[in-house]
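Input (structure):
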């Protein structure tokens, strides 16, 4: 049975989230993954120091680097969400200012119209 046009439930959930929620989740996940990767990196260094075979500590070190870079990618995504939040805030402020200026110029233009005096 094919389901055309239907998105997976996870995509629907992510699309409905606010930017602030996405930012908080990605930031927390980034810190968690980065710390977890550093823990694996220390374990890999201990394996080198204890004299384990190369395959063991290379695998653990590569795993730790993968986890660290995944954490950095999540962190970059969180920064993107944060910048989008700030840019929307600035955009709203500019729109509010422009609306205020349009209203002021409209009211000023109505009061400044003068007819030329007739002789």
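Output (sequence):
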């Amino acid at each position: 049975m094919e389901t055309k046009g239907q998105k997976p439930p996870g995509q629907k959930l992510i699309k409905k989230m606010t930017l602030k929620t996405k930012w908080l989740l990605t930031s927390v996940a980034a810190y968690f993954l980065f710390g977890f990767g550093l823990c694996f990196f220390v374990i890999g260094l201990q394996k080198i120091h204890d004299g384990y075979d190369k395959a063991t500590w290379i695998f653990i070190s590569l795993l730790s680097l993968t986890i660290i870079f995944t954490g950095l990618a999540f962190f970059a995504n969180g920064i993107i969400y944060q910048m989008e939040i700030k840019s929307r805030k600035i955009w709203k402020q500019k729109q509010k200012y422009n609306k205020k200026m349009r209203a002021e110029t409209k009211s000023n233009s109505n009061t400044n119209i003068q007819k030329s005096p007739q002789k």
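Notes: The CA atoms of residues 94 and 100 lie 10 Å apart. The mean pLDDT is 85.
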